[in-house]
Every structure is written in C-alpha cells, then in structure tokens.
Design goal:
The protein has about 270 residues and is an alpha/beta fold. It has nine helices and 13 strands. It has one domain: Rossmann fold (3-Layer(aba) Sandwich). Helices cover about 30% and strands about 20% of the residues.
Length: about 270
C-alpha cells in the first residue's frame, strides 16, 4: 500500500485514527502541538511533527509534513467556547489551506460538525439549509466553503454529531442537573470508533467531493437516553422538562448506507 496519510491534530479522535490507519498498512504523518507527545507518536509508528496553527502563522515544518501525502485529514476543533480572547478558527484553517495549495496534496477530509445546522427543526439531512447560531458553527461553515469551492482539491466534509467514546460522554456533565430543557429532543451522537471507521472508509473508497452527515441512525430522546446512561454508570440521572414538537433529527450519511457500511458501535 503506497498511500501516505497526514493527520492534522492527533488528539482524542486523530490519534486513534492514525493508529488504525497504521494497522491497515498506511504510512502516517501526525501532528501535535505538544513537544511531549511527539515521542508518543513516534513510539506508535507515526511520523511526528510539532505543528500549531495560529491566525497569523503556522508554527512548525508544515511543508515537510505535507510532502507526498495522498490524503490530508484536517481534524482541528474550533475551541471557541469559554471565556477569554479567541483566535479566528477560519483564519487558522485558511493558512493551512494556503500551505496545502503550495503542496502536492489534492485529497482532503475535513472534520466539521452538525453545529452548522444551528436550530434547524425536523428531519435534517445534507440538503438542509445551514444557519449556524454559534461562533464555532459559523466559522466551521466558512471553512467548509473555502475547501469545497476549490475545484483543484478533492474535499470530503464530514459533519459529525456529538462525539462520545472513552473518557468522553455528556451524561457525566449532566448528572444530577434539574429542569433541563429539551427532554423530548432526539440525541444526535456518534461513537469514536464509528468516526474512525467512516474516515477510513472514505480513504479506502477514494470517496471525495461530497458532504456527509455522520451520526448514529437511532435517536432516542435525551430524557430516555441520558437516564439510561446515568443508571448504567451508577450516577444521578439528569431531570428534563418536555418541549413538545419541532425537534431536530439528523440523518446518517447515505453513502455508507448504500454500501451497507453499518458497522456502527451504538451510542453507549
């Protein structure tokens, strides 16, 4: 197998992805902003690069990282929540895009979010109008447009639902809270293992120039789901109020249903 894959951002999702790609026989370049983590990447067989993005410059040897890549996976979360000044996520990705344009990379996978749909109601698919309400959603949509409108790049955008997996589950933060709204709203979640599998399948199929939602295809209500998950973990369930109709339900990407690629882990 001759493909060399680059993973920008070897964190909660990027590191398991890089490890899984290595196991499939790919050569993998990976980045981290932390010097301490470079040894971890190297030990696992990932060619390590210390690279960080700011809105004014790229710190690190981005040109060598991009050299001879067959596919670039951009997995950099916006991190625009919380207090304090925030750098523009769009400007960071724009600088990365400019570096890609100077390289030989032509196949790109961009990890986005269903946050770009904002407060859309009812059944939501890839054709639903995007009206993001959060700053993260707005800047993610800008990045999507930047990449997909460049016809010299083959870009597939994956809009992931809420990410869950090892050491990451919203029920731990919701435990014991009361009078939460949206109890009748469906959950739109996806497990880490499924995120990795979907990205790998795109690479395997050379499936580019498309836009995909990626969420688990079953959607219990928040009240049902988080109550069940809290009980399983032996923690206090959150208490929800009912909200009635007009609730958002995001459909799973059609390409994987067509290919009978429903290996999904379940939202546990």
């Amino acid at each position: 197998m001759n493909k060399k894959i680059g993973v920008i951002g070897c964190g909660w999702l990027g590191l398991p992805l890089a490890e899984s790609l290595l196991a499939e026989g790919y050569n993998v370049n990976g980045t981290s902003t932390s010097e301490d983590k470079l040894a971890v990447l190297k030990k696992k067989g990932i060619r390590p690069f210390q690279i960080s993005l700011s809105e004014n410059k790229i710190n690190g040897d981005i040109d060598t990282f991009l050299e001879s890549l067959s596919v670039l996976v951009i997995n950099v979360p916006p991190k625009l929540r919380g207090k304090g000044p925030k750098e523009s996520y769009f400007e960071k990705i724009k600088l990365l895009y400019n570096a890609v344009k100077k390289s030989t990379v032509r196949n790109v996978i961009f990890a986005s979010s269903t946050a770009v749909y904002g407060d859309a109601k009812g059944q939501v698919d890839e054709n639903t109008k995007t009206i993001p309400t959060t700053e993260s959603g707005k800047q993610l949509l800008q990045c999507e447009d930047l990449l997909k409108n460049d016809k010299e790049l083959n870009t597939t955008i994956i809009r992931f639902g809420g990410l869950i997996g090892p050491n990451r589950h919203p029920v731990t933060m919701l435990s014991g809270r009361e009078n939460l709204s949206g109890g009748d709203a469906p959950v739109n979640l996806i497990h880490l293992d499924d995120c990795v599998g979907i990205i790998k399948k795109i690479i395997e199929l050379d499936y580019y120039n498309d836009l995909l939602n990626a969420v688990y295809p079953e959607h219990p209500t928040k009240k049902e789901y988080y109550t069940e998950q809290a009980i399983k973990r032996g923690i206090t369930p959150p208490q929800y109020t009912s909200t009635g109709q007009n609730l958002k339900l995001i459909t799973f990407c059609s390409i994987f249903l067509i290919n009978e690629y429903i290996f999904l882990t379940n939202i546990k």
